[in-house]
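hi! just following up on the protien thing from before. the input was this:
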Amino acid sequence: LVHLDLYRLRGADELENLGWRDWLAERELWVAVEWPERAPQLAERCDVTLELTVTPSGGRRVTVAAGTPVGIEALRSIRQALFNNGP
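and the predicted 3d structure came back as:
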């Protein structure tokens, strides 16, 4: 698991220096990105996105969405495991 917090990212060249393309090429590696909107070229390649928001009552809401065929399959597998007692 690689965690990227892009909050302080100052430009695209800084992202390139982090080596993000190498990480995404690794099939067995998960890359978690905070503030993906600061790097659209990275955000558009996300298989699964999680959006955390605060509700009017002060609670938290998590929205999960698939962005690629890999993400669709991952969410399908997770849904099956959670709600159908296994694969």
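The radius of gyration is 15 Å.
The chain is about 35% helix and 25% strand.
cheers
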